[in-house]
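Morning!

This is the sequence you dropped in the shared folder:
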Amino acid sequence: MVCKQCGLETNADGAVFCSACGGRLDGKTACPYCAGLNDPASAFCVYCGKRIDGKTVCVSCGTAHEGAFCPQCGASAQPVKAGKPKKQKTEKSWWNPLLKWFGAGSAILAATFAFIFLFLIGTETIASPLLGSLVGNSTSSSTGIFSYFGSVYKDIETSLSALEGMKYESEQIVNLYIAAGLGTLISAATIVCVTTFFILAVIKFVRFATGKADATGLKFAMITVLAYLGGAAGIYAINGMIAEISATSGYMSVDVEMGEVLNGATSAGIVLSLIFLLLSAATALVAHGKEWIKPAVIKKNAFIAGGLVFALIVFFMWQSMAISTDFQTVEGEYEIFASPLANSSMFLSMVETLDGRLSGMVTVSCDEEIAFVYIGDIVAQLLTLGGIACGAGLVSSRIRQIGGKKGTGMGWSIATLALSVSALVAFVLVKVNMESVLDAYMQALNLSGTSISSLSTRYKISVGGAIGAVVLSAIGLAICIVQKILCKDKEETPAKTPTAEIE
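The structure's back. Tokens below.
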């Protein structure tokens, strides 16, 4: 028989193996594992499934090799015995559960205060004596958030009769309805947002307390508080006005502060809700433990803290954005800080009074300048409300970063700065045209020989609040830019803990 492996032809008939090479004469290959006979072309045994050449296939790279380790990747050829995965060591202490509950409790308290004081949001008109004044007791009247759904409009209808026959009657009426309409929109949005997100915060807290969820509900609590703050700031922004009068008449000294301010309940709600919200967010810093003492993390948190401080300052500056008018008279000093709409109404009334004093003796033509003041105040008021919304968004972004969220709040910072610059332009437009009108009336009064004690040749109009908002917004944006450059989130984000999650 002829050997198929070496070609020897002298093998005896009936022989199974070749006398020269020892190979099987039928050409079949025996499996080294089970001895099963396989065709020469077979790579794997048809009986046991193992490789006929006895080599091991690397499970990592697929290379067929001999020996205990793969020559290509170095992986072991020995199969790894399955077993239970090793448990990671976790630090168990009473501290983490305490932080978890403290953060959750602070968050729900912040939302609760915002919801309770929501129904007390309002402004009050005050006239109170300052230190050293001989004026008697203070007086006040309040306008609540729900007044914008009825009584405010009734008050406007009542006051229309007093505006009849006035030169700027239509402008004054439009001002009143713009303020009322904006107040209604702000009130409705505030009630809906605060109520909705308070309910969601409560649901989150209940699920957390019953063990059905690990998130504490800080995100919804934060939105609840910021909606409350935005509503209060918006209401004040369209009504705010403070007048400080220091005058002397004979032996009588008069030092009075009067105007429209936030009522005490609103101020208390702002303080309490902010304290507990920041307390809950600050719990995240402590909950991360040693992760927060790494140099890279400390650097990032320094930027976050600085950005949050500037965001809060800018937010509260927006709500009190005002035009300051300071009159120096022979009787004393009158300093008025008025929101754009309040300034517009006050200015139109002042022009009306000056026209009455002139009594047609001298004609003053400043219609174009007065129109610029009127339109500029309306635009400035709308920009102010937009700035409040952006300020709230920026504060929200910074608080979320405390809980480990990535980002710098760059978008909100850019929007806030853009609105600040736009508002400053509007305020400057108002200031320049107010000064032009007042100068014209001063000259007319001098020409006519008419004196008016409440308006002398010395006055000052300032828009310092708008300038301050631009400067602080620019600093806040600069912090975002530097943070983005120096803190690129290359380091791993600290592992989240239940108290740190902004959820």
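Headline: Residues 80-92, 130-139, 453-457, 490-502 have pLDDT under 50 and may be disordered.

More detail when I'm at my desk.
O.
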